[in-house]
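Per your request, structure below.
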C-alpha cells in the first residue's frame, strides 16, 4: 500500500526505494589526508539522541548512521536508502523496513534489525533524552527477521519516514550498549556503523575522528577528520587563512574580501534549514506573558535592516519558521511583517508599561553568523520603544546548559535548524521553556494529526504556523544563509541541513 500523503515535495522514493540500494563509492584519493573543519561551537554530547544541536549532528553523523539519508541537491528534500535499503507501507499504521545485510559495527559485530528496535525503544522510552519525542507515535517495533523490521504507529502517520532523519534517530548497537552496562560507559568509547570512528574528544577544543577499517561503504576518503571548536570569529578566520583549517563556519561578510585576497582561500554561501528567532516566555509572571508586550516586541524589529546591514544580505527577512525548501512551510509569513515602532510603544502603554519595561535577553557569540551583533541590534530596537534588556552573551555550551535547565528569562535568541518538514510543530512540546498553551493551536493540531488527505493536512500544518506567529510564541526574524570559508585545496558544496558529511568533501 502506498501512502499518498508522501507525494509532492517530499519524495518519490517510497515507490522506488527497493530499487535504490545505496552504495558508496570506495574512493580513497584523500585517504592519507586529514580534513580539518573549524566550527563556532563544541559538540554537546556523544549521544546522537541527547543534544538537540545541528552542530553536534554535523560531527556525529560521520560516526553513527541513520536508516534513511537526506538529499537536498535538487532544491527539495529527497529521502534515500541508507542502513535501510527499502521500505513499504503495508497498512494505514504499519511500515516494514528492509535493512542492508552487509553492515558491521566498528567493533566487528553485525548490524541487524535488533539494533533498530533497540534504538527506537531506547529513544521513545527515555524522556530525559533531548530527542525523545521523535518516535512517540510509534507503538511497536517488531523484528521480523535479522534484516526486516515492522513499525506500528498510533494512527496514520504521513511523516513517519521523516522521523528517521534529522537530529536524534541515529542507530545504536544493542549488544555493545548493553555490554557496556550504562549509556555513560558506552559513550566513553562508542561505536557506530559510519565511515569514521571516534579517536578523541577534547572538550571545548576538538573532536578527532579516524577512518573505520570495516565501513560498509568501502575505504573512507580521509585518514582523519578533525572538528575544531573555535568560537572566536577572528581566530576561526585566521586559522583558515594561515592553513590551520580547511573549512571555517559562520564567516562574517566583512572578512570575505580578506579571505579571497589570499589567493588560497575562498568563501561560499548557501541557503540553510534554519530560522533565526526570538523564543518568548508566554506564561506565569513573566512580562512577556502579556500578548501585547509580545506584539510590541514583534513590531519593534526592523527585519529588513537587520538582514541588509548586520548580516550583509546573508539572509531573508520573515516572520516565518521554515524556509521555502522545507515541505509545508507557510509562504504568507515571509511577507506578512512590518516595522512599526509607534504602534509598539502604544501596545506597551496599553499593557500598563507607559514608562517602559525591563526584561532578560540571552544570546550566543560565534555559534551563528553575527549572532551577537544581531542580538545587540535587536536590543537597540527594543530599547527604542521602551523595552530595556539585560543582554547576556554566552558561550554555546553555557547557553545550552542554561536552556536545558530552563534558566533563561523572557527572551532568548537562537537559529533553529535541522528541519525536514513543517509538521515538526505538531510534535513539539510547546510548554517546554516558553510555557505556551493555545486552544486554537491544539484544535488545529488535533485535526492535522488525524487528517490523511495530503492537501488538507498541508493546509492545517500551514495554519499551525500562522497561529504560532500571531500569538508570538516565538518571533521569526529571518532565514539565515550559511557562509563558509574554504581552502582552495578542498572541493566543498555546503548542504542545506549544514551537516558535514566527510565522504561528500573532496581534495582537489
Amino acid at each position: 500500500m502506498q501512502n499518498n500523503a508522501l507525494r509532492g515535495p517530499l519524495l518519490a522514493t517510497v515507490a522506488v526505494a527497493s530499487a535504490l540500494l545505496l552504495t558508496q563509492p570506495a574512493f580513497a584519493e584523500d585517504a592519507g589526508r586529514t580534513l580539518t573543519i573549524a566550527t563556532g561551537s563544541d559538540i554537546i554530547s556523544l549521544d546522537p539522541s541527547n543534544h538537540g544541536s545541528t552542530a553536534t549532528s554535523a560531527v556525529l553523523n560521520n560516526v553513527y548512521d541513520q536508516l534513511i539519508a537526506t538529499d537536498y541537491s535538487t532544491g527539495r528534500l529527497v529521502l534515500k536508502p541508507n542502513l535501510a535499503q527499502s521500505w513499504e507501507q503495508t497498512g494505514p499504521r504499519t511500515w516494514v523496513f528492509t535493512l542492508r545485510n552487509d553492515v558491521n559495527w566498528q567493533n566487528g559485530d553485525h548490524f541487524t534489525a535488533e539494533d533498530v528496535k533497540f534504538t527506537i525503544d531506547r529513544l521513545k522510552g527515555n524522556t530525559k533524552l533531548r530527542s525523545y519525542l521523535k518516535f512517540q507515535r510509534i507503538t511497536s517495533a517488531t523484528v521480523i527477521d535479522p534484516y526486516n523490521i515492522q513499525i506500528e504507529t498510533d494512527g496514520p502517520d504521513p511523516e513517519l519516514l521523516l522521523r528517521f532523519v534529522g537530529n536524534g534517530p541515529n542507530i545504536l548497537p544493542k549488544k555493545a550498549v548493553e555490554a557496556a552496562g550504562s549509556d555513560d560507559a558506552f559513550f566513553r568509547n562508542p561505536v557506530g556503523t559510519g565511515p569514521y570512528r571516534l579517536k578523541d574528544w577534547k572538550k571545548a577544543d576538538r573532536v578527532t575522528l579516524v577512518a573505520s577499517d570495516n565501513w560498509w561503504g568501502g575505504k573512507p576518503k580521509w585518514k582523519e577528520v578533525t572538528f575544531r571548536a573555535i568560537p572566536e570569529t577572528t581566530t576561526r578566520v585566521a586559522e583558515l587563512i594561515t592553513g590551520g583549517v580547511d573549512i571555517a563556519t559562520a564567516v562574517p561578510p566583512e572578512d570575505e574580501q580578506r579571505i579571497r585576497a589570499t589567493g588560497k582561500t575562498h568563501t561560499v554561501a548557501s541557503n540553510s534549514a534554519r530560522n533565526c528567532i526570538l523564543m518568548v516566555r508566554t506564561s506565569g509572571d513573566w512580562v512577556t506573558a502579556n500578548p501585547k508586550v509580545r506584539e510590541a516586541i514583534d513590531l519593534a524589529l526592523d527585519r529588513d535592516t537587520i538582514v541588509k546591514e548586520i548580516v550583509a544580505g546573508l539572509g531573508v527577512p520573515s516572520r516565518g519558521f521554515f524556509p521555502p525548501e522545507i515541505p509545508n512551510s507557510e509562504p504568507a509569513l515571509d511577507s506578512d511583517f512590518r516595522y512599526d515602532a509607534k504602534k509598539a510603544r502604544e501596545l506597551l502603554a496599553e499593557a500598563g508599561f507607559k514608562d517602559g519595561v525591563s526584561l532578560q535577553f540571552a544570546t550566543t557569540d560565534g555559534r551563528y553568523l553575527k549572532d551577537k551583533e544581531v542580538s545587540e541590534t535587536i536590543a537597540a530596537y527594543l530599547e527604542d520603544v521602551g523595552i530595556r534588556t539585560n543582554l547576556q552573551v554566552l558561550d554555546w555550551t553555557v547557553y545550552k546548559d542554561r536552556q536545558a535547565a530552563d534558566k533563561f528569562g523572557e527572551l532568548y535568541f537562537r537559529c533553529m535548524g535541522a528541519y525536514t518538514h513543517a509538521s515538526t510543530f505538531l510534535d513539539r512540546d510547546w510548554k517546554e521553556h516558553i510555557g505556551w498553551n493555545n486552544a486554537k493551536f491544539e484544535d488545529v493540531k488535533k485535526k492535522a494529526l488525524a487528517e490523511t488527505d495530503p492537501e488538507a493536512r498541508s493546509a492545517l500544518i500551514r495554519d499551525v504556523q500562522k497561529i504560532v506567529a500571531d500569538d508570538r510564541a516565538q518571533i521569526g526574524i529571518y532565514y539565515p544563509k550559511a557562509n563558509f570559508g574554504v581552502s582552495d585545496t578542498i572541493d566543498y558544496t555546503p548542504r542545506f541541513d549544514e551537516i558535514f558529511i566527510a565522504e561528500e568533501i573532496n581534495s582537489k
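Residues 23 and 217 are 6 Å apart (CA to CA).

Regards,
D.
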